[in-house]
Structure formats: structure tokens, C-alpha cells
Amino acid sequence: FRATPQARSPKGPWRHHLLAFTCGDIDAEEFLKRSAESRIDLCQAHFFVAMSHLARGERSKARQHFQTGSQLKIVGSLEEAISRSLLVQLERDPAWPRWIPEHTIDD
């Protein structure tokens, strides 16, 4: 997929940006910047950035990105709906998911 020309990708270059982010070729800031031309892409990008923070135990950062993505209010977006659900869960239990140790980062 990485070698596939962007023109063949169903979502154009955004899928390649997502792949570059998940492979560690670009950081979250660059991924969000590259996604900024489309509200839908930006919502999805915030979701993936939030999930990466949550997976590292950086719950505060995850909440910020879930919140930012959900505020875009993309009707019918799975990522927006899941972001809202995860925000509710994190408000209900700030240590969720408990199997991931808390990790705080300084920014």
C-alpha cells in the first residue's frame, strides 16, 4: 500500500498520511497539518492521534484530541461517534483503561 500511487487511493493522499503517521514516518503535528484541508480528514486524524496517546497511557492528551475531533461534529463519522463515547468513558473513569499504565508527558 505504501508504494501505491496516491491517485489510486480511495481517499487520495490522506490515507498515505495516515499510514505515514502510524508507521512513525511523520509525527502527530505533521499528520494534523496534512489533514487540515478537510474537516472529515481532520476529525479522523484527531481520532487516530488520540488513540495513539491513549495506547501510551497519555490520557490527558488523548482526551484533548478526542474532544477536538468530536467538536468538528461530522455527521455519520464513526471516528467522531467513538471519540464522544470514549470521552464519556474517560470522564466516568479517568484511569480507563486500567490495563494501560498512566504516563504523563510535558509539553
**Average pLDDT level:** 88
As a whole number of angstroms, the C-alpha radius of gyration is 14 Å
**Helix-strand string:** HHHHH
Strand segment count: 0
Give the helix tally: 5
Give the DSSP E fraction (strand runs of 2 or more residues): under 5%
The major pleated sheet works out as: none
Report the uncertain regions: 5-9
Structural class: mainly alpha
Distance between the termini: 33 Å
Shape: globular
Helix content: 55-70%
Textual characterization of the structure:
By secondary structure, the protein is mostly helical. It has 5 helices and no strands. The protein has helices at about 15-20, 30-35, 40-55, 60-70, 80-90. Helix 3 runs antiparallel to helix 4, helix 3 runs parallel beside helix 5 and helix 4 (about 60-70) crosses helix 5 (about 80-90).
Question: What descriptors fit this protein?
Answer:
single chain; 107 residues; mainly alpha; globular
Give the SSE layout.
Elements: H1 13-22, H2 28-35, H3 39-55, H4 59-71, H5 78-92
Helix pairs in contact: 1-2, 2-3, 3-4, 3-5, 4-5
